[in-house]
Amino acid sequence: MKNILVTGGAGLIGSHTVDLLLEKGYRVRILDNLEKPTHLSGRPSYIPSRAEFIEGDIRSERDVKGALKGIDGVIHLAATGGFTPRIIEYLEANTIGTALMLQIIRNERLPIKKIVVASSVAVYGEGKYQCSKHGVVFPPIRPIEQMERKEWELKCPFCASELKALATDELTPVKPQKVYSVSKFDQERLVLGLGEEFGIPSAALRYFVTYGPRQSLSNPYTGLCSIFSTRLLNDLPAVVYEDGLQTRDFVYVKDVAAASVLVLESDKSDRQVYNVGTGNSLSVLDIAKTLSRIYKKDIAPEIGGKFRPGEVRHIVADIAKLKSIGFKPKYTFEDGIREYVEWIRSQGDVKDYFSRAQTDLTKDQVVRNCR
Question: Is 124 a catalytic site residue?
Answer without folding.
Answer: no
